[in-house]
Amino acid sequence: MTYKVAALYQFVPLPDFREIKEPLHKLCLDLRIKGTLLLAHEGINGTVAGTEEGIDALIVELRSGLLFQGRLDNLELKFSSASEMPFKRMKVRLKKEIVTLGDPQTDPLRRVGTYVSPAEWNRLLEEPGIVLLDTRNDFEVEMGTFEGAVDPRIKRFSEFKDFVANELDPAKHRKVAMFCTGGIRCEKASAYMLNQGFEEVFHLKGGILKYLEDIPEVESRWKGECFVFDERVALSHGLVEAGESTDDRA
What we know:
It holds the Pfam family Rhodanese. It is an enzyme of class 1 (oxidoreductase). By secondary structure, the protein is α/β, with parallel strands linked by helices. The chain contains 7 helices and 14 strands. It has helices at residues 17-30, 52-64, 118-125, 138-143, 160-167, 184-195, 207-214, and strands at residues 3-11, 34-40, 43-50, 76-82, 90-94, 114-116, 131-134, 144-146, 175-179, 200-204, 222-224, 226-227, 234-236, 240-241. The protein has a 5-stranded mixed β-sheet with strand order 4-1-3-2-5. The protein has a 4-stranded parallel β-sheet with strand order 6-10-9-7. A hairpin with a 2-residue loop joins strand 2 (34-40) and strand 3. The longest helix has 14 residues, at 17-30. Mean pLDDT is 95; it is low at 245-250.
């Protein structure tokens, strides 16, 4: 059996996020979905897996059902597949942030960097003076990254602020491009850097996962595999499980 996997997020005001937790958990259980969803005042984030019918029904409910009342109208979604269920249980967790940076002044709902589609990403990387940042944790970077990317060598995303303060200068680094797994960390990271006075900040829309989905391997600047936070461990070009070819999934 093949399972459909959905990685999703959206920054959106959810003042009632605590009340949403139990109904959302029940909905996922009813649809036989497993994984983790995070809820906070600033939005939703997570990865879940189930049958194609179950995941499709969940997405319809998130986008247009009574639970979120149409607020998730700009949900960022990436789909992939798994040969076995990649999660052991279903969890819905309440958090202060859906991705933890720890800076109250950083609000992606107010301002973020310029989105760059996977189709335009390679062209951006060829521009002179561009600083390419991998915003992920060190163990993720070790598995794969883009050619020429700066590794901030952080253990957790909240350390990104210290890296920027110690290693980057708005007066010198005028054009910055950044990327992360699914795009959500770059929402916070780009907003933070703009607040610190950096002039031009770009980020890969949909993250590495969208790039690996859209860009043929022969045109790709990506080297290695992309770590994912489930039992598949890593994905490669075409969003196939690491060690599995696209022919294996045909």
